[in-house]
Amino acid sequence: MITTAPKEKTVSLRQEQITEMYLQKLEAHIHALKTGRQQKALEIGDFANMLHVHPIHLSATVKEVTGLSTCEHYEQMLLKASQELLSDRSLSIKEVAARLTYDPSNFTKFFKAYTGITPKQFREIQRG
Description:
By secondary structure, this protein is mostly helical. It has helices at about 15-35, 45-50, 55-65, 70-85, 95-100, 105-115, 120-125. The termini are far apart.
């Protein structure tokens, strides 16, 4: 019996371009939310429309190129923005949640799911 090693998948230049453009647009969007210049969270379909691709194609491409789904990238950037905003003591947790288009209860659930601690506990740890 002959066994063969699995073929390595090659990523095309176009797939890399789509992924890079998605990540750039996502980063700009998260920054706009963080700074209060945008009040509505975009969905993956919105990013796909901006890039003139189908949402399923965008998701599959990003996953193939990076190993992470479009949602995982979105959530990672939202988490980083959350931590940055929570570090600003002039903003209440409710204000941080609103900036990132969450209601406070769902924001706490999101934050705890990814960090293991609540936003309040995060602030207490930051305070030292």
